[in-house]
Amino acid sequence: MSQTTTMKLLTIVTENLLKEQIITLLKEHHITGFTISRVEGEGSRGVRASDWEGPNLKIEAIISPQGAEQILERISAQFFDNYAVIAWLSDVAVLRGDKFAQPSQSKSS
Fold first, then answer.
1. What phi and psi values does residue 7 have, to the nearest 5 degrees?
2. In the prediction, which pLDDT does 53 show?
3. Cβ contact 90:8 at 8 Å
């Protein structure tokens, strides 16, 4: 059996209009791989009032445990007060853990 590495799955459900800002935030933290899905649902702010804003998005990225809380804090500080956004971390066991750069291994700008 292949060896797994414990990582964190960062999941963000957000309004479509924040897509580019969230991607920029992820890249600033040297997260270059992520998956974006269109999703729908209902939360504390209720059902979306109009379709012109586009669908909600779920953005997922597997990240190293180091710095994961810092990313959540930044998402919270930057977006939670004014937008319909929720984010959470889950523990995951991944194969090919070496594909996911540790912050200390990332290139400096």
1. -130, -175
2. 64
3. yes
